[in-house]
Amino acid sequence: MYHIGGNTFKVKLHEAAVWIAIIGLLYLISLGNYLLFHTLVELFSVYVAYVIFLIVWKSRECLENRYLILVGIAFFFIGSVDLLHALTFSGMGVFRVPGINLTIQLWVLARYLEGISFLVAPLFLIRNRESGSKEAENMYGESLEDSVFAWKVFLVYAVITISCLFSVFFFNNFPAAYIEGSGLTPFKILSEYMVSFILLCSLLLLYITRDGFETKVFRLLAASIILTIFGELSFALYTHVDELPNLIGHYFKLLSFYLIYEAVVDVGFEEPCSLLFRELKHREEDFRQKAIFLGDEYSHICRMIGVNRSLEPNNKSFGDDENQEGSHSFLQHFPGIGFQLDEVFSPVSMQGPVEKMTGYRKEDLLSEKVSLMELIVPEDQHLIIENQQKLKSNPKFVAENEFRIRKKNGELIWVREITRSIQGSSEGSGKFQGLVYDITERKVAEEALEKIDRIRIKEIHHRIKNNLQVISSLLSLQAEKFEDREVIEAFRESQNRVASIAMIHEELHGGENLDSLDFADYLQKLTADLFDSYRVGKEGVSLKLDLENVYLGMDTAIPLGIIVNELVSNSLKHAFSDKNEGEISINLHSNDASHSLVELSCSEPEFLENDDFHYTLTVADNGRGIPEKMDFRNTDSLGLQLITILVEQIGGCIELNRDYGTEFVINFGNSEKL
């Protein structure tokens, strides 16, 4: 079972299996058992090919590199043909065909599939990169597109492979590769050279597209292709299966398959973010460059607004002739609209690509046949109205708005408007002037950057959760080596603590909000797991939850989750040791008007005046209770020590009520709440 971001030790197990197999094959060679050697090499190559396919297929929706997708799928069919090739060996008893022509035909077919796959794969990588730079707004449909691409590739390979197999097995029109008494045919020998040439071309294309890979992945792929070329040349030189070139060729093939395995699997486990988000990083850099360009353009616009007094080229209020000429030249080349408005914000003059930006003629807007406000989507109109009031009340105010307008054809675009008052304007002239230009591309880039960050953060949470689950599994395995009950219990407690943290990252990975957690929902899942873990022999203990929907930041949620884990597990272990029934209750609420801060139970002087305690968490049970003489703040119990330390860490306070069983009341704030 493979899981990107976790279970790395399983990958190392496969790596060890590879080298053990190679050593075993060397031993068989020393015994002179060439047939068994060839069979084991082929079967092991098939195994590696299928592993490559499984990893790529499982990660096809998040693996943006289409080179790896195509190659991974191709190896399924290459491995399948190689499997048939191995089954045709004499002594296998699967295909009762005289001679070895069928065996070599299948070998040639598999090598052509491999060579052509390496040649075609870079072309899809180039195409994917070019199409990705055209429209940034479409990039988040690509996970679905990549999945569809994978299915298309699979079906194409299935049709081609099945057609070729029919040609070999049923139609008998596949060129002969071996003739009894004559040996290898020219077709077979030329095919080896042809496949080598195809692989050489694929190596050149791989080098051209090398920036689409991490350095380690590129080197592994290149080394695999080079070894495959050497292997094909070796197979072109032998005349009998027991000769040295055939032996060397099989070793080259085995090593080339293993390098592909390393590139796709090992690097995918050890460096998943680098592998999965290579294309995202390139796009992010492209978007940032566009943002820098737009920022420079915006600065230029602001400077022009500060200089110009009028947008009419024949109006001398511009200043001197040099400013007038510069302004007119700027507006001719500026991809936006310059305008003047009167005291009621009706257009007086407009200059620039009005019809191109809005779909309406300039005359229609100046005559107010079409109102400027009608172009703005209703949800954004309040921004314009608010800034118009500020412009009227403050002559020095510069209004800057970003809003959406609907063009005549119904298309929505984002625009940025900068408007200011015209100082000393004469009667009948404009009172306000400004510029408006299209920022749709920038908005799409900003949205794409935000989505990239969300994907990256989700992947980080996913990786942390996986790593914590590995730690939890290792603790469980380690505990099995001990028989001491206290040691086993200590391992289980540590395992539950790690699991409580892993659950938070799992919730953040799966939720919409990446910065805060629905703590009530989290408590329900956490307590359910704890009851499953400790409830043996305590079936009569029930759980009562009274939880308000509270969203907490991760720095608060993780310590608080461990605190609840400790309190509930302590109750399940100790509170009902003398009886088989009882109740554990958890209450979580915000300290609003119905829960006044005056009611807070903290007795420490520094907390009495604290108004930052927005939430109260109560964990109680009606069990035997904690002895009066025991100070839970000063005890040898690791669990209670953790509780005290973690409450201090989140800046909260904790009180113990022993009146009816045990009741811990924790008051805390949440500085990270959104």
UniProtKB/TrEMBL annotation:
The chain crosses the membrane at residues 12-29, 35-56, 68-92, 104-126, 147-170, 190-208, 220-238. PROSITE patterns: HIS_KIN (PS50109), PAC (PS50113), PAS (PS50112). The keyword RNA-binding does not apply. One of its GO terms (biological process) is signal transduction. Residues 354-395 form the PAS domain. Gene3D superfamilies: Histidine kinase-like ATPase, C-terminal domain (3.30.565.10), PAS domain (3.30.450.20). Residues 399-451 form the PAC domain. The keyword Kinase applies. Keywords: Kinase, Membrane, Transferase, Transmembrane, Transmembrane helix. Residues 459-672 form the Histidine kinase domain. GO terms for molecular function: phosphorelay sensor kinase activity. NCBIfam families: sensory_box (TIGR00229). PANTHER family: SENSOR HISTIDINE KINASE, SENSOR HISTIDINE KINASE PDTAS. This is Sensory transduction histidine kinase.
